[in-house]
Amino acid sequence: MTVKTKNQGIVKYTLLTWLLCGTLDALSAIVLNPQVPAAAIFKYIASGFFGKAATTGGVDMVLYGVLFHYFIALIFTVILFRLYPFLINIFRNKILLAFILGLLIFFIMNFLVVPYLSHIVQRPMKLAGVLKNMSALIVAFGFPIVFIANKYYGD
């Protein structure tokens, strides 16, 4: 007889959550910015590493952008999935926690990663864009992580 431990299946749950979050986030960027070609969105992401050269690059820069996008999504998913039991004990409400996780990712990306850890040229933030991006991260990361981690951890 096999005894299930809390760590059994965590890799599977985390990887599936990562793929879902990364894909939802990429799709939201494409859908919420219909005036911007999808290739340009991923070149923008690649410019975080390659600088302005990424914007004039070809398919290679689009692929780098996709890889970087999913790599960043993996980092957030792994950390937040593992922190879920701690965080749900603090906030005690899954809906509230989903909002907090999405907002946390927004603030980390826009006030730490982009300005200090990337070569992306920052543009002024506009309220409509900020609210759109926050909402996208809440839906793409907050809710999937909270509800899938809740299923895994059995709260």
UniProtKB/TrEMBL annotation:
Protein keywords: Membrane, Transmembrane, Transmembrane helix
Q: Does the keyword Transmembrane helix apply?
A: yes
Q: What is this protein called?
A: DUF1440 domain-containing protein
Where exactly are the transmembrane stretches of this chain?
61-83, 95-114, 134-153
Superkingdom of origin: Bacteria
Species for this entry: Mucilaginibacter boryungensis
